[in-house]
């Protein structure tokens, strides 16, 4: 998302386009070396905005914003050009450099009105690289940390609201990774390893969409090991919290097919979870 207000300069930028092309010695936006010596900072900045708004690629816009910073390093347009450069780099999917430029903006202008946007761009540079759940989730962890920074440092900004939504999606993504590994172990009949993964989802990612399936897979795994009390308790928690979920129907059939009922039994971590989540006993 571009900074609010930037789009409003479109008409001004169009009017300046011809002047700037002349001021550039006829280089245009073909990627030739720019010759902007003597061109005012605002005009170069507006040309960068114009390129960002009208071109499919942001490479020329990046050049103009960089030139503002180089030629007029202490101007107010240099400050704005720096964060706009970070945004343009992100749009080009040059995520690492976008992070570097955004962090440089924060280091130089920590109290600027665009600080929240720069912080958000850093978070986006990780978030937009999150791969499918079958791959290493290191970037997901980094995205979560960066999104949390936006939420905590700029809680009243528009970027905080967006970060909360993305944080929930990234958190769900990590739970999906645990589920994928757990299902793999379950197919391999490595039930103890599978239980460990599903337990992580139930205990650490309980607010995600994967919790009902994790409880159901616990029922499956415990039944396979002959641990009926644990299976019954997992089924009881699933039924209490997700009774209308198809995974509860599957667990109910599994349990009743062996003459068992989904109710809390025995002791252990699931029974403790049942006391806390279902009965409200925390001590």
Automatic annotation (TrEMBL):
GO cellular component assignments: cell outer membrane
Membrane topology: Lipid-anchor
Outer membrane lipoprotein BamD-like domain location: 40-234
InterPro entries membership: BamD, BamD-like, TPR-like_helical_dom_sf
Protein's GO biological process: Gram-negative-bacterium-type cell outer membrane assembly; protein insertion into membrane
Domain of life: Bacteria
Main location: membrane
Stored Pfam families: YfiO
Subunit structure: Part of the Bam complex.
Biological role: Part of the outer membrane protein assembly complex, which is involved in assembly and insertion of beta-barrel proteins into the outer membrane.
HAMAP family reported for this sequence: OM_assembly_BamD
Protein name: Outer membrane protein assembly factor BamD
